[in-house]
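User: Show me an example of a complex going from sequences to structure tokens.

Assistant: Sure. Here are the input components:
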Amino acid sequence: MEPILKVRNLQTGYGDLRVVWDVSFDVYPGQVTALLGRNGAGKTSTLRALSGLNKVASGTVEMDGADITGVPAHKRVRQGMAYVQEGKRVFHKQTVEQNLLLGGYTRKAKRGELMESVESMYEMFPILGEKRALPAGSMSGGQQQMLAIGAALMAQPRLLLLDEPSGGLAPVIVGEVMDRVQQLKETGLAVLLVEQAVEAAMSVADHVTVLDIGKVVLDADAKDIDDLAVLKDAYFGRI
Amino acid sequence: MTILWSGLALGAVYVLVAIGYNIVFVSSNTFNFAQAQLMMVGTFVAYTGLVTLKLPVLVVAVMATVTVMLLASVEEIVAIRPVADHQNQLVTTLGVATLLNGATQLIWGSEPLTVPFFGSNEPITLLGGRTYPVEIALLVAAIALVIGLSYVSKKTMTGLALIGISEDREAAMLRGVNVRRLALGAFAFSGALAGVLGLLVGPKTFAVATLGAALALKGFVALAIGGFGSLPGALIGGLTVGLVESFTALWAGSQYSNIAVFTVLIVILMVKPAGLFGNVRERVV
Amino acid sequence: MVSAWRTFRSLPSWIIPLVLAVVILLLPVMGLDLSTSRQIQLACILALVVSGLNLSLGFAGELALGQAAMYAAGAYTAGLMSQAGHTDILVQLAAAGAVALGVGILTGVPGLRLGNWSLAMTSFFLVLLVPDVLAIFGGKTGGRNGLTGMEPPTLFGSELDTQQYYMVVVVVTVLWFAVMRNLVVSRHGIAFRTLKQSPVLASSQGVSVFRMKLLGYAIGAFPAGLAGALFANTDLFISPEAFGFTFATAVLAASILGGAASVYGAVVGAAIMQLGPNQSTAFQEYSLIFYGGFLIIGGVLLSGGLTKVGRAIVSKLDRKAGLGVVTAKENSGGTPELAPINGARLVVDGVSKAFGGNQALNAATLTADAGKVTALIGPNGSGKTTMLNMICGFYTADAGVITIGDTVVSQSSPHKVARVGVARTFQTPTIPENITVLEAVASGRYSVHRASMASAVLRLPSFRRIAKADIVEAERVLELVGMSHLRNEIATSLPLGMRRMLEVARAVIAEPRVVLFDEVASGLDEDELERLADLIRVLRDAGATVVLVEHNFRLVLSLADEIVVLAQGQVIATGDAATIEHHPRVLSEYLGVKSGDEDALLEEIGAVDHQTSEVK
């Protein structure tokens, strides 16, 4: 099977601050690739570069075999990439329904078609349906996270970049979020999941890449990782 | 009561300027000092069309809309897009305002020109006060625009995208919104609006090149009262300024009007710096 | 050619302007015609007003556009005094300056609490008010018709003729620019620039942002008042038209064109604005278009104005002549040392802070002792940054107490905390532009070893002593960080690693009792990390209290005497490296293990303890 995303020797950061030095990995359709590591390792910077928000200093990003390294962020959405940023970035002043509708911006579909997708989001995340007319800012963290994911899914992506969806959420909610990720994976969606919560990520991951100070220190199939001790070493800089 | 109507009409002019400010603020997070001057250009084009060339009203409206829309687009590309920080943007938009001021004086001279109202000029009596159709028209236009644009911002995709941009630019980009193109479009739209409104504003203020700065400043007070980015706020703010100005002129003399408006500005900025409907974000280091 | 240039450059920087000033002073004596000398006079007056704007805009970073109003205030003060018979020019100048200063402070106090746009528009509004104020006091001021009835100016009793008055104007202008220059090249100029670049940085260096901004605004008002008085006496008539938006725009255009952040830029800009457009009446019609054009071009392209272009040419010529080239090799001298520091104990006791609904810190407690490195670590959202910002005074705690040594700082503003002896670095190095490495490092001494602005302007011995000490200390600290050979480079031109070291040098130059490092290791390569670690050890050994907020675990392990782990706003563990690494709660926070499964995790890890895992 061909990977939907190929990342080769990625180097990126903020301004002239280099956070990611040399990162390479693949993401396959219908699979969850977990990108793990401590904070400051460069996980978010990697996602930002993949989504087009950050400039790539060197290296390439290929999607469906085509080089998208220079493609601006808003165009990548049209090509099938959706990025759910960390920190539940929803539009607080707009209602839940408006947030979802805006997620379908690139689809150029009629209102009716979009509303159908919105309804299916309400099926996947019932709590959103209950709060459809409320401003997004009035919801709890977990609900906002669901909304952020729902809005990204409205664009009907084939590749979903998820940045720390568990951030600040109670373990029960985290479990729910991961269940959804499992569901999505089974529909053929490729997911690149960045997480600090290792256990949660391992519960859905098919492949694991661990970063430390901007470099890959561990790259393996999830089934080959017997215990979390290996990960712990990677985390605490023993490798 | 007559003062009430003329004050409201004057306030409506400030509302229209503030609406222009808001459109630009929401889409580009910029303050366009030249907004009022663009409206002045609209009044001059209206004069030329209606008085000099004696063209039909609709044609003049189109002329004014297109002319100012083009000017606004050029301004965005030349004076706003290449400039990185807000302070410099204020300098460049002030430059555009000055340049337009100079150009209009060169072309049309510095004497105020009378722009005829395309409707009737007969005074009418309303609620015990005398007013003119153009004053009512200005008021109606201001209210209609606030309602209309609020509707657009909530019900259309473009509107949602614009509100999104003003709240979180990156998140909007990640929804597929071409932020730069939309910003240019919104800017051009604010120019188009300023142009066509020249046909309403001109009859009330006369076509005067030097009025731009005063309108710009008082339109800003409207913005400060109502809050940056709020359309209903612009309505309340603008009408307040118009009423304060007119009533002060009546009771204390015209040389005190601007001082009164200035006092309102200082009080609002000290007491409620974000305006009535704006919101302040907590500062983070 | 080269040697001529070298000689030229070896002259002190004030020689050329002084010579120019003397030439201009003597022009009428040398036979210059009346109309040209009048133009030069007006250019000097404009230059005074512009220099005031430069101080606010170029140095303090405040777009305050009210100069025209203060100019008017000065003019009418002098005019009314002259009308009443007080014709001595020195008295008029003093009064006009004082009135303008008063107006400046009065409008500055509310204005400076506002954001950028609000300040600009509020100050610009003042220009709109000038005709109205004049109309209200119409009787005395002549309202829209202008002020007449002025007597010719006198100096020490004798009336000044046109030529003598010209000289007075030039001398006043030259004296003011000398004051400006002395102020701007001194440490106060650097402080203003720091304020412009980042008020946060300035306050963390002990500068009261509000006071400094007000000072900049007020000092900028003074020359406008002087200019007004000189203007009134030029024609012995004041027309209100001279103070409108056209003038205000011309002042801004002159400032931008000449370069707002330079002393002499005001002269360059004013000369062009005054002498250029006034050459023919045709130009008068186009004047607004020119002003507008200059503002647009200046704002877009010429950030820094013509003087910046001039400086670029000078540097190019310098390089061709071999001047200013870095010749000294980087020194790899012996062990650097610091004089003993009286470190203060930092105690954070039960501190809580919530932002909206988010509880960032929850009864967090930690202690950092003198002569020790305390590392603060924790996952994202743990509250590390909030903690740091609270210690520095950027946030106030909802509950709890923060003490440094014997002083309680929980309610103190950032600059007060800095003055207790706290220094910090920032996640992104913040350094003012257009200053050298030496100047940047020396700026760390600004609030600890103080010198008044007056002493700087007058170049008093007390100031000279401090300025010398600034250089000596800065050299010493640069040697400590191995950057002596870069002392004359423009600080912002350095790569990130060097800029971080510069920030560290700046933080330690005033021998702070507590130093806070905010993720100072990020973006550094191996060598730079080594040097940083050495420096931190030197600091610790000298007795300072060092707090290190870090992600780089290896650095923490090698440096920290004590590690404090924050998670979800609470301190969950403290101890040395060995304790932390095996602490179950730490592991569960970092690895996201659900609480309750920690025992299982411990077991697994215990089981693998003595094996080495093969990793790709």
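The lines above are the inputs; the final block is the predicted structure for all three components together. Residues 2-28 of chain B form the longest helix (27 residues).
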